[in-house]
Amino acid sequence: MSKTAQKTGAKSAEPDSAGTPKHLRALTQDQYLNTLAYVFGPDVQIEPHFPPAQRTDGLLALGTARSGVSSAQLELYQKAALGVSQLVINPERRKFLFTCQPRSATAADAACATAFFTRIGRLIHRRPLTPAELKEYVDEAGAAADRLQDFYKGLAVSIEAMLISPDVLFVVETAEPDPAKAGAQRLDAYSLATRLSLFLWNAAPDDELLRAAEKGELQTPKGRLAQVNRMLASPRLEKGVRAFFDDMFAFDAFAALSKDAQVYPAFTGVTAADAREETLRVVVDHLIAKQGDYRDLFTTRETFISPRLAAIYKLPAPPAWTRYTFPEGSPRSGIVTHVSFLATHAHPVRSSPTMRGKALRELLLCQPVPPPPPNVDFSALENPKSPFKTTRDRVTFHLKNPVCAGCHRITDPMGLALENFDGVGTYRSEEKGQQIDASGTFDGKAFAGAVGLGQALHDNPALTSCLVKRAFSYGSGSAAGNDAQPLLAYFNTRFGEQGYKLPVLLREITTSDAFARVKAE
Amino acid sequence: MNRRRVLRGMLNGGAVTVALPLLDCFLNGNGNAMADGTSMPIRFGTWYWGQGISKNVFVPKQAGVNYELPEEIESLKDIKQHINVLTNLNAYRDTAFFCHYTGWVVARTGIAPETGALPMAESIDTTVANQMGRTTRFKTLSTTATGDVRDIISYESPTTPNPPDFSPISLYARLFGPDFQDPNAPTFTPSPTVMVRKSALSGVMDKIKGLEGKVGAADKTRLDQYFTGLRHLENQFDQQLTKPEPRPACVMPAAMKDMDTGSDYALVAQRHALMSGLLAMAVACDQTRVFNMVYSYGFSNTTKPGYDKPHHTCTHEEPKDEKLGYQPNASWFVRRAMESWANYVKAFASIKEGDGTVLDNCLILGNSDVSEARVHSIEEMAAFTAGKMGGKIKTGLHIPCGGAKITNLGFTALKALGLDMKTWGAKSNETDKTISELLA
User: Fold this and answer.
1) Whole-number pLDDT of residue A56
2) Confidence at residue B357, expressed as pLDDT on a 0 to 100 scale
3) Could you tell me the residue ranges of all domains in chain B?
4) Are A166 and B223 in contact (CB < 8 Å)?
5) Among A119, B7, B65, B125, which is 20 to 30 Å from B21 by CA?
6) Predicted ipTM?
7) Topology of the domain covering B40-182+254-438
8) pLDDT at A457 over 70
9) Cβ separation of A376 and B316 shorter than 8 Å?
10) Which residues on A lie below 8 Å from B139 (Cβ)?
């Protein structure tokens, strides 16, 4: 019986796979902040403004394994590191963060500094410091303390240096021979701990995970499963799940989303932030708290609304965030009918069935839509004498032109099912005096409106296989290519056998051989 | 003995000035400027707007000095003597074509992109900054008036984008916040805290070597890039520890209020004006010698009040007015861009420096992603230069380039700036030709 079968009691076994390359990944802003909050306490708060990575193969997370750090970006890292170092030595915090008192507050104290950097350095570096590294931090802090005549200011100098160290801001994955398979390589224990922790918690490993790595437990199937189960049960899972879906749903678009204030006066920057939050709350509530079926995210009527969102949904404004269920018969069901999706995939001044259809295909189904060809003149669409009244009339025109039709046939019929929602997601039944026809089709299935679209998505096999692909790519840091198909199919089967529950999928991926296997270079 | 030991020893000895030998990399920049204490440094800048031009109302009918400004660029009348209008420049796609991307990437890097994600080479501002940006506090400054950090036009390497500052208030804080050293301040005291921070930074730099053995070639390049960034930080510390040269033109701007986000044209113009002023003063204060501004991006979201299409959508969907021969609303957006270009040039021209203005010591290149946006054309593109670059560049001209490569413009700038290059660019866009009309 295979290892996988032992741990789950299932019949199928994980197919052999080549693994994924070891990476040099840049920590994202949230990973950096989540780590600092764990190490120094949640009140050590800074706003570092790290720029986002470049989206690669559908995920920002994959961009972190490719992009370099520019000088301007490093300046931001340094500013953040300086800010943190000042907060950490604040007299109020010292009593929590220091286990020793320096002999004198105005001079170096190597013993106390050593105790501090041994503990902090291991958590920040995601592995124990070597004696030489430790000595460097202590010596540097000591020289600075003597020069500035302040023990804590001396420490701050070394903390700042630590926080901009290349092996802190970059995750340098390392491989070792896999004793279970001759000739194969696996991640070493600390690299595996970090990969697990960035995936599930969007933060560096905690003390316990590092302990399991140090003791060798993490490299045993039983030990790894125990750590994964602990991490899945932790409240910190929420941050990891939010980060993953924020990336997969391309919610970075919210950072620059704006709507025309004359056309949509109710939509402000706060509305945009709340829209993002609404969907992430539903994701967390449905997938973690309720352990729900992933597919039901696209049909559920349960949501959360804020005062600002109520204005867009045309509901009485609650005093604060509150649970809300769209009533039976409401045109809204599923996260695709949230303001988040409807507003980010629309123009500043109107809806866009094409953008919405394209987003459904690319973000939720992993089906890339080619860009428009060059030298296309769209202006026939806007001929003042044209009979087009509604958006449907306009986009139907795409299908008459063979150059356009190839791609628009993929996007528009799905997007048209969302035409009852304007450019910010408010319900409408008419456009320019014409009754809106929100019928749509999707891969041969016809339906009416957004509710039908949600059900069609729910029933489409690409919905779950896309999640599996994104989750494995995100967790491993590499875009899953064609050679990963048997592995992804296996994960998808296991996911389905256990009710499409997200924690199950995360467990299957993180405990697989493939997750730790390093592809030969 | 490494540099850090030297430095730490000095700290313990209580030395107050830092007299470390300059790193080699600091010696090969800035060879000409300020060496004798009199000549003004040369600066290089760029300006970018998305969505190109309406040819029949943009391209001047006459060449040379006595040309009339067509209606789309009427707003350049106040800066006509400071700029050159270049028309009929071509880019070549070589492999695949990426709308709103290929055109500017060729103009800024010399090489057509092979994917829509990352260019194939560093951008021209980086090439220049590597030569002359190493002695200033910022090697280069990149800004965007769009409010979107993703509107990137500058690349330090093919895989290292240089994301722009996108908010005036944060740009102000970066330039003129607590770390700003007024070059005209009467007193100067090096900070002991900066000295010890610099020493610790040397320790960080020593770490790179240990990591390089653990990664593959592509990742080693990324670590090298990181190391370059650390050197930049070290340079900034050096700046803070050295009494700056007086800069009579430098006047620290007043603090500013935050402004709204959004892509309404008036907001973009306001953001652009604030950031242009800050950039110009940063140059006057010698905080940087290389600078970039994005007015609008390729997929420009700029909106016009009461019109239901943002700029990019408008270029595709608005019918050409047969009588006018162009798309009226698309042209309206280009006209707003040209007003901001004029304001950008004026920001540098309004600061006196020596016998002239800061602009007189600058060379600024302006370009777009396409010529006619309606059809994504990268033939017959237009571009600008501004500034005389210390007398090396002529201005006041319309130069029809007769279908020449747009890379000729970048190559001319690089040659004029004294970079020793035989050619610039690759494949169809490679060039060894300058635009001789520009050179004084």
Assistant:
1) 85
2) 96
3) 40-182+254-438
4) yes
5) B125
6) 0.85
7) Alkaline Phosphatase, subunit A (3.40.720)
8) yes
9) yes
10) 71
